[in-house]
Amino acid sequence: MLVEDLMTHNVEACGPDASLAEAAAVMWRRDCGVVPVVGEGGRPVGVITDRDICMALATRRAYASDVRVSEVMSRDVATCLHVDDVREALEVMREHQFNRLPVVNGEGRLVGILSVGDVVRRTRKGKGKRRVSRKDTLATLRAIRRPRAGEGSAAEDDEEDDEATVEEEAGGDAA
Known about the structure:
alpha/beta; 41% helix; 7 strands; two-stranded antiparallel ribbon
């Protein structure tokens, strides 16, 4: 299955010079928690989340209209192509521990966004071109939720439990 089959197509972005108030307005209008930040030519240069906005305003004495997106956005942006296989996109999400990926076309311009939620809605038991396997989806969720370096947890124990759950749900076949 291709990313373009699952992604949200009509995505609203903002520029790095937009204010946090403007980014929050996009989130409100679009009922979302992340806005891609695009530079010249509509190419992603970062993302800003509702958490980024909240933390920035909680730690400064400033109005949302006075703080620029570029001051608080995540610059560690990974993307995928609209023609990529969903499994490739899931691998990028796992590697970077991202819940969402901006989707670009061959010229690198933003054309959509793919979320874990988009993938979960299409996750099915079995195999086929129109399915995303439970195993791939669960592996991605597990990787995204894994504590980042230095935070410590019992994640390895949870991983064994998760694998058993996947096999049980798949009827002994973890695909």
